[in-house]
Write a structure and sequence with these properties.
The longest helix has 27 residues, at 97-123. This protein is an alpha/beta fold. Strand 5 and strand 6 (148-149) form a beta hairpin. It has a three-stranded parallel beta sheet with strand order 2-1-3, covered by helices on one side. The chain is built from five helices and seven strands, in the order H-E-E-H-E-H-E-E-E-H-E-H. The mean pLDDT is 93. The two termini are 21 Å apart. It is 26% helix and 14% strand.
C-alpha cells in the first residue's frame, strides 16, 4: 500500500508536509517544508495556507518532535517548563527519574497547547469542513525496567512504548467511535480517505473513525 501523503497527492488532494523532525518516509509531493525552532512554528499561517490552496481537499501533516527523546527539556519554550527540576542531558539513565519525568511532562503540556491551537485555527475556518487527527508513531520509556525511549521489539516491548494517543476533532461532529474504542495507526489511512471523500479500491470503511 502506498503511504498516505503520496497516495492522496496522486489522487488530486493538495498535500502539505511541514516538519521540525526527521525520518519521514520517501515523499512524492510538491509542498514539503522543513521548519526550524519549536513545533509551534509549524502552525505559522496555517489557516491562510489552507484557504489559499486552490483545491477543495487539503491534507496538512504537521510532523512534530515535541515528546521525542532524549532531549525532552529542549523541545518546548521556557514558559512551558511548569514542572521542575528537569533533566537536561541526553544520557537519560544518569538523570534522577523525577527530573526526566518532569521534562517529559513539560513536553506533553506543550503538545496540549499545540493541539488546542490547531483546533482553534480550524474552528475559525467556518466555510470549510475541517478535521484533525493527532496520533503518535510510538511511546517512550522513561526508565521503567531500566528502558529508555523506544525501539524494543513489539513482542517484548512494554506498554509505555506502544500505547499511544489517538485524538480526533471535527467541525461537524462526524466521529462515530467511542472513546473506549481501541485504535492504531492503521486507522489513519482509511479515516483520512473517508473524511476527504477519496474513492479508492483499497478503502476499508470498517477502519474509518468517521
Amino acid at each position: 500500500m502506498k503511504i498516505l501523503p503520496n497516495y492522496l497527492f496522486r489522487n488530486g488532494v493538495d498535500v502539505i508536509w511541514r516538519t521540525t523532525n526527521w525520518g519521514q518516509p520517501p515523499l512524492h509531493i510538491d509542498k514539503f517544508e522543513e521548519i526550524g525552532g519549536y513545533d509551534e512554528n509549524l502552525l505559522a499561517d496555517l489557516k491562510e495556507t489552507i484557504e489559499e490552496s486552490g483545491k477543495d481537499r487539503v491534507l496538512v501533516i504537521l510532523h512534530t518532535s515535541t515528546s521525542h527523546g532524549p532531549s525532552y527539556g529542549k523541545k518546548y519554550p521556557p514558559e512551558f517548563e511548569l514542572f521542575t527540576p528537569v533533566c537536561n542531558t541526553v544520557e537519560m539513565s544518569k538523570c534522577p527519574r523525577d527530573e526526566l519525568m518532569n521534562a517529559y511532562d513539560n513536553s506533553i503540556v506543550y503538545t496540549d497547547f499545540l493541539i488546542h491551537k490547531v483546533i482553534t485555527e480550524l474552528k475559525g475556518m467556518t466555510e470549510w469542513r475541517c478535521g484533525m487527527i493527532y496520533v503518535s508513531d510510538h511511546g517512550e520509556s522513561l526508565g521503567e525496567n531500566n528502558l529508555y525511549m523506544h525501539g524494543v521489539p513489539m513482542s517484548v516491548a512494554p506498554a509505555e512504548q506502544y500505547e499511544i494517543p489517538f485524538i480526533v476533532w471535527t467541525s461537524d461532529n462526524s466521529v462515530r467511535e467511542s472513546p473506549e474504542t481501541e485504535l492504531s495507526q492503521y486507522n489513519v489511512f482509511h479515516s483520512v480517505l473517508d473524511f476527504l471523500g477519496v474513492e479508492s479500491p483499497v478503502y476499508d470503511g470498517a477502519k474509518s473513525v468517521f
